[in-house]
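Bumping with the actual sequence this time:
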Amino acid sequence: MKKIFQRINNYKFTLITVGVILFLSLSSSEDINKPDFFDFKNSDKVIHFLMYAFLTLIYLMERTHFLKFRTQTKKTRWYFVLWIFLAGGIIEILQPILSDRNQDIWDFVANTSGIITAYLFFIILKTTTSIKFFRRDPSAQ
């Protein structure tokens, strides 16, 4: 049980982000107040992109920090990013069943674009930055 709570604590921001995405994705569209700057055609695609990019980036940062930069990070990182991709697809399929929203392939494309963009951004940031968080720890090998 202690291990489960430790894992939840290690991924707390990822889990909070997943909860927010689930809430927003399955809520009635009339219940959500859109800010004025998102009041344009297909603005929901931008929101989908940003939500899934943020989720992927937060997850990758927590995962890298949790594993203390071991080589295992590189091997398992893609598996969990794939789970984010699949979860986005499943949510998109369940939307008409669980809420008044419709399925939209372009929402799924926006989700996937956000995931890929965040993953590439993370890799570039990790390899080019001097921020200690992203540098490989030589003692962890």
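The tokens above came from a reply further down the thread. The chain has a mean pLDDT of 77.
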